[in-house]
Amino acid sequence: MRLHLSIHLEDNTEVLSSFGDEPLEFCIGDGTLAPGLESLLTGLRAGADDHILAEGAAVYGEPDPALIHVLDSADLPPDFQFVPGRVMLFDTPGGQQTAGTLLAETESGVRVDFNHPLSRRGLRIRVHVLRVG
Q1: What are the domain boundaries of the chain?
Q2: What does the pLDDT read at residue 27?
Q3: Of the four listed, 7, 78, 97, 124, which is most buried by Cβ atoms within 10 Å?
Q4: Is 63 in contact with 113 (CB distance < 8 Å)?
Q5: How high is the pLDDT of residue 131?
Q6: What is the enclosing helix (H) or strand (E) of 2?
Q7: In this structure, is the dihedral angle defined by the CA atoms of residues 96, 100, 102 and 104, taken in order, positive or negative?
Q8: 65-113 CATH, one of 2.40.10.330, 3.40.1260.20, 3.40.50.1220, 2.60.40.1930
């Protein structure tokens, strides 16, 4: 499938767009897109230019309370500044990086939500299908 895709938040903040750039090219099921996003594209034909309203949980999965953690202040970068709602990258024990949303400061550190940053948001998605198959 070859298409242009954009995702905007409720306040019109653009979080992703291929419009004005190279289109995305992938096969359904290859892991390029989240399964929930792929399901919104299933059945679209070449030439389709659709606007879709979706809940982030339907696209990126239901938030899991077990993915909210308190990080000790000693584990934060020296120049760390708490900004509620800020999304930042954290190093995992396995050496990879994962995004976390800053929720609150605590006595011992910072409460961080490691669910997908868009899973709790309302989304406006635009997709323009250039080619199927």
Answers
A1: 2-61+118-131, 65-113
A2: 92
A3: 7
A4: yes
A5: 96
A6: strand 2-9
A7: negative
A8: 2.40.10.330
Below-70 pLDDT ranges, the chain? none
Name the DSSP class of 27: -
Phi and psi angles of residue 129, each rounded to the nearest 5 degrees, phi first: -80, 120
Residue 64 near residue 115, CB atoms below 8 Å = yes
**Which pair of tokens denotes residue 83?**
């900004």
Return the HEC string of 62-100.
CCCHHHEEEEEHHHCCCCCCCCCCCEEEEECCCCCEEEE
The three-point CA angle 71-73-74 to 5° equals 105
Partners of residue 25 on adjacent β-strands: 2
Residue 51 CA: distances (Å) to CA of 12, 26, 56, 82, 117:
13, 20, 15, 35, 21
> What's residue 92's pLDDT?
86
* pLDDT at residue 77, as a whole number: 85
pTM of this prediction?
Answer: 0.83
CATH architecture of structural domain 2-61+118-131: Roll (3.10)
